[in-house]
Amino acid sequence: MTTTYRKKLIEVALPLEAINREAAREKSIRHGHPSTLHLWWARRPLAACRAVLFGQLVDDPSAWPERFPTEEAQDRERQRLHRLIERMVPWEASRDENILNEARWEIARSVAWSLGEEPPAKTSPRAVLDFLQTKAPPIYDPFCGGGSIPLEAQRLGLRAYGSDLNPVAVLISKSLVEIPPKFAGRPPVNPKSRTELVRGGSWNGKGAQGLAEDVRYYGQWMRDEAFRRIGHLYPSVTLPDGKTATVIAWLWARTVASPNPAARGAHVPLASTFMISTRANNTAWVEIVKDATALDGWHFELHMGSPSSAEYEVAKRGTKLARGANFVCALTGTPITPDYVKAEGTAGRMGARLIAIVAEGRNGRVFVAPPRDKSGLPPLPDIGWEPRLELLRNSRYMTPTVFGFTHVSDLFLKRQLIALSTLCDLVEEVRAVIAKDISNLAPGHEQTAGAQQGAAYEEAVALYLALAVSRQANRSSSLCFWDMEGLNIQQVFARQAYSMTWDFAEGNPFSSSTGNFLGQLEYLTNVIANLPSDVVAANISFGPAQHLNYATPYVFCTDPPYYDNVPYSDISDFFYVWIRRAANRLWPDLFKTALTPKSDELVAFPDRHANQATADQYFMDGMLATMRRIALASMDGYPVSVFYAFKQSEEIENLYYSAGWSTFLQSMIEAGFLIDGTWPVRTELVGNLKKKKNALASSVVLVCRHRQNLSNLTSRTDFVRLLRSELPPALSLLQKGNTAPVDMAQASIGPGMAIFSRHTKILEANDSAMTVRTALQLINSALDDYLSEQETEYEPHTRFAISLFEQFGFEPAPFGQAQVLATARAVGVDRVVQAGLLEARGGTVRLLTRSELPSDWRPENDRTLTIWECTHHLIRTLLDGGGELAAADLLRPLGAKAEPARDLAYRLYGICERKKRAEDAIAYNALVVAWPELQRLAATGTRSAAESLLV
Known about the structure:
alpha+beta, seven-stranded mixed β-sheet
């Protein structure tokens, strides 16, 4: 098929390793990262979104043969664009206007050239932005979730649109991309900042920093007002030295009545551990002491210092007997079974007992033993309001419901409910305070907000404060646990589910330590202050993707839900109830239902259908309808990119053969797409090849085109012929783009599926239609053939070594078999030994490992220089010698043998993958990953001593 569009960079090659490295690193970045505005699950990394959008909009050099007429010129230009992506994807670059302006100009250049124009001057960033806003295509994400894709589209200067069925997702996305630009550059309106402005002159803040200042100020007002009303419910604690201290956390253990009648109904703790702190210089733990005068006949005794081995083992296991709800009665030694715990919980007879109190000491955390009765805990008033709304009964994602925690309010202690509802009420009250402060603006500050804009500004600040309360809920639930090493309160959602906690932490929202309200507010304001400035507002709407009607063409980039991997609506109800309480009057259209909408959610949960098969069909029908709408509304000339998130269960063997993967590919083809790119995106840092292979991708980016013209039916034979003729050039470009060997099989699916999906049907010998799974197997076979055929470029010594390696690796081989292989390659075993690849001893031969190669080897001194030696000496030097600089010193004089040496690493990696030789495969993958840096160092570094002598 002859294409009528210009290929984009993402359809040819990407610097995948650099993108994946930064996507994984991004998970460790917290301060100011947009993900810390508010929790959302399964977010795609900003680095990956930025790179994908750039690749979707920037033309590949091969699309402009009149400007880049030779393959060499195209390679140089492609590498230049790859280097820009490598500089663009680190988190630090997200706020580097110089790098962002470069990226925006590259997009503008491609757009301008397609219009027959020239882009604005590179030196005029404002003109480039204006050009992009008027002439570049708009971006749309119909599953915008946490807002990563619209945010990165906006950061690149593009018009960004998004929508989602979930109100929590809609508000998070609005808070990231729609609201901040509306108030960019405006000074704050709060009295404190206004006084400082009067003293200091004009406002110099950038972007939404003024908005962030107001959110911080009015959040402090809310905290202070809440403390005035309910601060007495959070009393200080008396330390052993008689002084008082602010409590950071109250640590609790759930209790049930002992199943042993001898205990006479006494409640005993269900504790996974009795350790309070495992820090070497501040270790603390508790033990149960029988005490006839205490509540239930026992009390907790606090210990400090270094426990003995026996004490540590006892404290470490608490009253746990095994995984799950298996405990032991601390009074009688009777086992407490899961069924008993469930029965007590569902009957409403589960309680809680204070284990210890953590306070703010002068030099760090201080631990205090709990009172032996209920003294020290203040009486609590009636709860004015609570979210008494029923949770989904699903033991897979909603474990607490199994134990009687069946409503949202059951996940919170009474004091937590009082605190959160008080903060929610104050969100509405703070609007009046903001309105009053705006009306009192001094002359000269009217530009901060007019009458109509003032109301919008009040709503904006109130929305962020509502999200801050929602963040506080994530640190104010009885599902929060205590981190014994970090000595802090951990959030509810350690995973994408409600997990049952037996010993939990209740924080103090008014402390200055972990879990306090101002700390949650600071996370949020740091994000607002650092969001993209000098861009126009995006537009985020509310609605189900399968029913959307697009009024205009868009470039689509999206991350849809995958089957039953994340129960978005069910777990987001945890946040929705508090945001709805706080912001219902701000966004009434988003809060028409008591819990998040579920009937139109595209997930495959049997709880909402007759069975799993019906749920699966609902998902596939809805996704097919969504993708058909996207195909019809996608802008001509631009591909669609879809992040396909894999389930853990699919990361067991060859990822590209999984049933879910092939089914999803099939549905995309049925929706009218031609698939021509598949890029594995990893977001997990992994330490060995086995893990790296089994978790090959957190997601795969599908690159698709709306299929306009279909060729006639074709046969399996013709499909294989087309693979053999069309796939090698695409694979060569992937190698030149430095796609890592570990990603090569997945990346090769794209160009292979482009051949498959451009036909209406490919017929097997029995006239049945070829399945996607069969096509994937044939593509993988064609990849193996391509890598094998590259052997023809190698001299006989290397070809022999490859054959020997395939059969024996670096283990000894019988001399006779080696001789047969050598004869087939027209080389003698003795010549291979003389060349330094092999040792022959005692009737066996063995390839030398890299550690056995001479450390003083230089290519210019080798009389029989082989590709095998070049590859393995480069790996030896890179991994075991002087690192990248020394390896580059070896690479420099290789000349024409350099690329074949890299290509050999691909070939040997493929052999190792099939033969399950993980350690060797890691080395070959490492060489390819390091190759661009080795090339750079080889081109710019100093000459080696040996080379200097040759000059």
